[in-house]
Amino acid sequence: MNKIHILVFSIAFVLVSCNKTAEFKTVDKTGEQSHPSLVLTKKGVKDIRANLGQIPIFDKTLAAAQKEIDAEIIKGFDVPVPKDYSGGYTHETHKKNYILMQKAGVLYQILDDDKYAKYVKDMLFEYARQYPTWPIHPKPRSYARGKLFWQCLNDSNWLVYTSQAYDCIYEYLSEEERNTLETDLFKPFADYISKENPQFFNRVHNHATWGNAAVGMIALAMDDDALLDRALNGVNDDKFDPDEKDNDGGYIRKDGQKIGFFANVNEPFSPDGYFTEGPYYQRYASYPFLIFAQALQNKKPEQKVFEYKDGVLLKSVNALLNLSNADGEFFLLNDAQKGMSYFNSSLISTVDIGYHFGGNNPELLSIAEMQDEVTLDDAGLAVALGIAAAREKPFVKKSIELSDGANGDEGAVGILRSGDMELVFKYTAHGLSHGHYDKLSFALFDGGTEVVQDYGMSRFVNIEQKGGGNYLKENTTWAKQSIAHNTLVQNEKSQFNGKYDIGSKYHSNKYIFSVEDENIQVASAKEENAYPGTKIHRTMVTIKDKDYQNPYVLDIMRVSSESSNQYDLPFFFLGQIMQTNFDYKKLDAPEILGNSAGYQHLYKEAGALVNGENIKLNWLQNDKFYTYSAITFNNDEVIFGRIGANDPDFNLRNEQTLILRKNNAKDALFVSTIESHGTYSPVSELAVNAYSNIDDVSVLLDSKEYTAIQINTKNDTSKVFIISNENNDKESEHKLTIDNKEYTWRGSYILTENK
Amino acid sequence: MNKIHILVFSIAFVLVSCNKTAEFKTVDKTGEQSHPSLVLTKKGVKDIRANLGQIPIFDKTLAAAQKEIDAEIIKGFDVPVPKDYSGGYTHETHKKNYILMQKAGVLYQILDDDKYAKYVKDMLFEYARQYPTWPIHPKPRSYARGKLFWQCLNDSNWLVYTSQAYDCIYEYLSEEERNTLETDLFKPFADYISKENPQFFNRVHNHATWGNAAVGMIALAMDDDALLDRALNGVNDDKFDPDEKDNDGGYIRKDGQKIGFFANVNEPFSPDGYFTEGPYYQRYASYPFLIFAQALQNKKPEQKVFEYKDGVLLKSVNALLNLSNADGEFFLLNDAQKGMSYFNSSLISTVDIGYHFGGNNPELLSIAEMQDEVTLDDAGLAVALGIAAAREKPFVKKSIELSDGANGDEGAVGILRSGDMELVFKYTAHGLSHGHYDKLSFALFDGGTEVVQDYGMSRFVNIEQKGGGNYLKENTTWAKQSIAHNTLVQNEKSQFNGKYDIGSKYHSNKYIFSVEDENIQVASAKEENAYPGTKIHRTMVTIKDKDYQNPYVLDIMRVSSESSNQYDLPFFFLGQIMQTNFDYKKLDAPEILGNSAGYQHLYKEAGALVNGENIKLNWLQNDKFYTYSAITFNNDEVIFGRIGANDPDFNLRNEQTLILRKNNAKDALFVSTIESHGTYSPVSELAVNAYSNIDDVSVLLDSKEYTAIQINTKNDTSKVFIISNENNDKESEHKLTIDNKEYTWRGSYILTENK
Fold first, then answer.
1. Distance CA B732, CA B726 (A)
2. What pLDDT, on the 0 to 100 scale, is given for residue B33?
3. Comparing C-alpha atoms, which of A684, A660, A681 is closest to residue A671?
4. Cα radius of gyration rounded to whole Å, chain A
5. CB A331 within 8 A of CB A324
6. Using a CB-CB distance cutoff of 8 angstroms, which residues of chain A are in contact with residue B465?
7. Average pLDDT of the segment spanning B249-261
8. Is B245 touching A (CB cutoff 8 A)?
């Protein structure tokens, strides 16, 4: 067994050697390599010490860390026998310990005070004393149980941080002490999360990224190149079962898939730097990706990690920041908890590393300034010096399309920004095990406030009262389902029948992304696999009308199918209904809307039959007035629903939705506008522009080739938007006559004023 | 008829002359009195001009007003024929006009630029031209319809502001011009809202306050002492019908009740300055009370208006500011819209007048500084000079009891403040027509955030889409009902059977208000009329335990009745349920809880039978963790309810409540604690102190004489709170033995640690 191991290793090693870099050096086993050398370097420490007192943001961060660690040193530490899930004492204590060690190590280097080194050393020796005695963590919920924590993931977190602490006090320790720690703690620790848990380590997944980085960091700290190779290229797992799944229902990996750190960089990131799981998980994975890349760059520059895949790790920093709203909160793509933002601590290092290794982009300094904190290392010093020299520029978020897929050919996320509006339109691949079944879904933000929501995930991270802080069952039964999103649901089934095996095979396709003209921006995409036999084409447009203060959104969804179906298009507005222009009948008591695919979690509160008029929903949120106006056709149905049915533990938020339903239709056209048109002040009690500016939206033409929509506004102007449904060539000439009026244009769409 | 009028007037005049002041002077009809003399004075104008450029807050306010009015002068004005309800064009335009005139008048005085005077003059002449032609406003909803607006109330608003404008340009106008304006506009305007609408003018009500102030202001501006007398003492209304009611169901007035401005000061304000309708309406009435008082003081100092009733108008300023939470938002007592705060424009003058005429209290300067605006008059100058001289001190809100009733003997509002917690306990009189049936109710705020809510009113003020911006029917059927509040409901009937005629006869009684010790503060009150034959005694306590960061609330409600009843005690927590320690059964679909008295608006979502254990409800709001722990007895029932049934227009907010129900009980004891114990950050995803610190709450003794509650906390300490139920003497000595342990103390209660 051992022999096979070594053999496989050697092969993997050679492969990588050839593949990645010719300058790959053999490991220097003499211990000559100096420490610190991971995130802090000898030179960095010297420069930091020379600048202290003149770099306010660094000085402040340092003072806070010092204050915190000084208090902790007085308090003393605890290394409890592992027992709890997240939220529980032993979990939170081990988590706290690794953060304290990392900080104390840094303080030792910068302040040159042995008490910090001693604190780290004492804690490490306590871990080294106990670790060999600990069995696998008693809590059984994970597919890869850790030793300190209930899952290897958290054990890896521990090692990523602790490696830095060890690097910092490396030279403070005697060789014998280092031997003890490495033999009793670090090596078995690294082996446990890799060799003994290949189903965790050998994946392309944020779990594996942490695992790879953890093993890689400690390998760099210990100058153990064999171990480093394991981090970069994976560990042998000849018992690999391609049918095995993790707790989220995701496959461990595809058979034959590459593994190790580089594979984890290569696969999930598109060439634009979009991380296929979405920004919430990128934020989480960002730390190990970048902290390990930084260490690798510092210690093994010949690996050229930041040049890998055309510099994708650095591009990912920019992509991630662009995936946040005006308040810096990440858009909710796939499993994501609301409120996570670039103020998260892992984004401190992301921004600092992005700045330091990515060409000192001054826009990143303005983010760092808002974060009001830097990493206490070479990268943080660079940022602090930049801010001290007042070199920051505003980080301007513009409309942007970020492709998905390792090769950038698996759809994309399109973000349209206009005025205070930010529209996120999702036409990506599935997003691995955290993906939702929500192709062609969107969400809308206004000045940082979510107005048309993506529910996010059904989980209260680290809140033990709610299922131990882990994913709740409603995440699967509600949050991932199509009906929980602002997108099409056919026959009350989720897209891809809600099956990961199917969904993960497909992606939507980009059709148009055109944002050169700030008055008319278009994102258009097609989905042809979510419901076999049905093609969906959605176009989202932001229009800035000079007569009105805010831009508005035009949403066109064309559905064509081989069969007759029921189509539901939910609209998850947030806020209180002010008025509708149609009569609805409120039910005496809410009724459960359906049986499965998320419908079992929706109550029907009211319903209406509409017949070809525009319907309008006017609502108020956060002291702003909004109106949704939708074209309807004969026998369309409107349902006011509310989340919360079949929710025995009150796990769900009880928000509303409006569902526009078409029964027994083959082809269908959904067209609507969304306006943010007015404001209210509960202090002055003044309502300003409380009503929609749009008089009427109508379909002028809808054919296989073209869809033309007319929008009449209250100031008697009339606009026509025409999109070519089959030709997205930017240079094609189009000529079209509608109602004896001729429209000619070049490109895939036109917006014109009707005289 | 005319003769009778004059006769009655003369009598009223003489009565007042004797009663109020001996120095009451006859009117100088020579026109010698100089202008401006209402809110601006000649001397004030001189001082303001001398200080411009050195009083930043005043300069800034002035610049903003100038910018606004300059733009409006260019735009021109419109005086449309009245037609709309609030929110509509003509309503909003007439409202805008009076504000513009007032500001332009002030600018004329301060900047000495005729263009501002001309703007006011032109607009006034346009009103004078059209006013005589206008019939009563076409919209029929009010018991006292105006001419410019749908109700006399808004016409009065207009006149209060316009009088100031007229005063400012008085000397700019020729005598002939003044005659025209007074004859065609001001006198008939004043007559209309007084003589022709005595059901509006002759009340003790915020409506009448505006009417009295309006007539009084224009009387002062015109130097018309007969008219001033009408303002101060009411108008003849020999056709008065004591059974007549207003639109809110309130009586016009009690037979024989005094009327006019002084009566309106005397009756609704308690000697502590509490306004019986509550702070939301005090805020609204505050402007006419104080602006007219200021004008009266400036022009008729012999009236000594600020000394009236021991200086109650100035005391009311302090009372009002104390009725706001940490963010300056007013507590929701009776009809009140959430979010109204001391940043409302009427509070600018309230604070400035309170400062200028009330002895230059430096704490008011800190409020003015937060408001970042002053009135452009003598009072505003005083504030601006105070701020420029850096004389402000923080306005420290402490625990305070504010008596209700003209003589201060009709109950009170008790406010307990401890740490970040603010508890508002209501044991007042009914509060006139805007009163709610919620004796012994409370609400709890934490750092300015409402945690245990009072629903407030069911109205979206000035949002036309929602019932023209007026009271919605759900205000009567839900918001005013007892079950909408955190107080006792017997047999699913509202207190006083929800009848204003009955409720307005009674008030609760203070029992204890003791706040000297910040570690234990007690507010206790009794209600014996809400349900005939049933006596309710509620005691609310804040306890600061040195072991815990935040104080917690202990709530004891004793009920004793002559008959067996169902008792419901709702608890309107805001936020999401995290966990309960009891099993509840969620219903498949919500059921309507009851038939009337507000129960028809509640859905039952889940229920539980409990049996003598403590129940715990742990919830999360605004990233803080809270726990409600309640003692239960055998066969108590817990109901999770949600607002929103029988709400055909989605007028209600769909928030939750927990109802603790006792069936078939004569006497009952409800005891609970409320803790704010932890925090959550969606950015760091850290949950801190997510669980209650209280292990157990139990009843040691409950007798006619004493109630003793034991609270055991997680750190193994045990506290006992004992209250004397029948003797609230502060000096009495008590001795009590419970479980062989002797407790002795002086005063009405004790909190002691159990060793």
1. 11
2. 64
3. A660
4. 28
5. yes
6. 578-579, 618, 690-691
7. 84
8. no
What are the residue numbers of the active site of B?
Answer: 281, 434
Cα–Cα distance, A88 to A583 (Å, whole number): 51
pLDDT at A204: 87
> Can you give the pLDDT at residue B3?
42
Rama region for B498: left / alpha / beta (φ>0; ψ in -120 to 50; rest): left
Does residue B423 or residue B253 have the better pLDDT?
B423
Q: What is the mean pLDDT of residues B357-381?
A: 97
Helix axes A378-388, A56-75, angle to 10 degrees: 140
Distance, in Å, from the CA atom of A440 to the CA atom of A428, rounded to the nearest integer, reads 8
For the record, the structure tokens of B309 come out as 């009733």
Residue B19 pLDDT > 60: no
The length of chain A is 755
Confidence check: pLDDT of A3 > 70: no
- In the prediction, which pLDDT does A242 show? 81
Number of cross-chain residue pairs from A and B with Cβ atoms under 8 Å apart: 115
What pLDDT score was predicted for residue A33? 64
CATH class of B54-267: mainly alpha
3-state secondary structure of B394: coil
Q: Please state, in angstroms and as integers, the Cα–Cα distance from residue B426 to each residue in B400, B526, B548, following that order.
A: 12, 11, 28
DSSP element (H, E) containing A543: strand A534-543
Name the residue of chain A whose CA is nearest to B343's CA.
A683
Q: What is the DSSP string of B613-652?
A: SPEEEEEEETTEEEEEEE---EEEEEEEEEE-TT-TT--S
- CATH architecture of the domain with residue range A400-753: Distorted Sandwich (2.70)
* CA torsion angle B413 B416 B422 B427 (round to 10): -20
**H or E stretch at B743:** strand B741-746
d(CA B172, CA B160): 20
Cβ-proximal residues to A241 (8 Å cutoff; 6+ apart), any chain: A252
For residue A717, pLDDT over 60 is answered with yes
Average pLDDT over residues A69-88: 94
Q: Which of A371, A567, A543, A564 is nearest to A482 (CA)?
A: A567
Instruction: Classify burial at B174, counting beta carbons within 10 Å of its beta carbon; exposed 0-12, middle 13-18, buried 19 or more.
Output: exposed
Name the pLDDT band for A503 (thresholds 50, 70, 90): very high
Average pLDDT across chain B, whole number: 94
Chain A, window 47-106: residues with a beta carbon less than 8 angstroms from a chain B beta carbon: 87
Q: What is the pTM of this model?
A: 0.91
